[in-house]
Amino acid sequence: MTDWNKSLRPERFAFLAGLAVMGVALLFLLGATGIVVAAVVGVLCLGAVAGGRSGVRAVRARRWGRPGTWLTLGAACVSTGVGGFAVAYLTGILSGGLDVEEACVHGHGVSYDDAYREAHAQEFNRWFPLSSKCNENFDLVPAWVNPALVFFALLAAIGVLCLAAAVVTALRPRRDR
Fold first, then answer.
1. Would you write out the chain's pLDDT as a tens digit for each of its 177 residues?
2. Of the four, 6, 44, 122, 159, which is 20 to 30 A from 109 by CA?
3. Are the C-beta atoms of 139 and 108 separated by less than 8 Å?
4. Residue 177 falls inside a structural domain
5. What's in the keyword line of the UniProt record (predicted)?
């Protein structure tokens, strides 16, 4: 494939076009807040894709001693970890909707136990693990949410460690080649 053909490949622009469409949609839906949300999501997606792609290339080329390798891997891990954590946490928080009783009875066909909810009110207000039970046996929060929160938090922490490794690698004195 020639250089001219490589520059015209449409998949290079598909990512940016998707971000632009998402930004316009959020602008119409959320107003000024939509611009901020679109910018954050765009940066996270760009960090995950670009960082992951160049990080994998650097690892394949066995360039462990270069700060750029650790920087791109760190950017990919932090972006993916933060984005995945946000999606999982919002899914868990919003799983009950505005009216938990209606979500239980009409949305899932499960009986709603008001006495159980009052007895365990503290359990439903915690940040982690997320829970929104209709009764003793049925939780509105999907079973994958809490493990996903742990996974994405660990992935973001690994990304921070990779960024620290990039700093250490950059500050380390170079040996003669």
1. 555 555 556 666 777 787 778 767 777 777 777 677 777 877 888 788 888 788 788 888 887 778 888 888 888 889 899 989 998 998 888 887 778 888 888 877 888 888 888 888 788 778 888 888 888 888 888 889 999 999 999 999 999 999 999 999 888 877 644
2. 122
3. no
4. no
5. Membrane, Transmembrane, Transmembrane helix
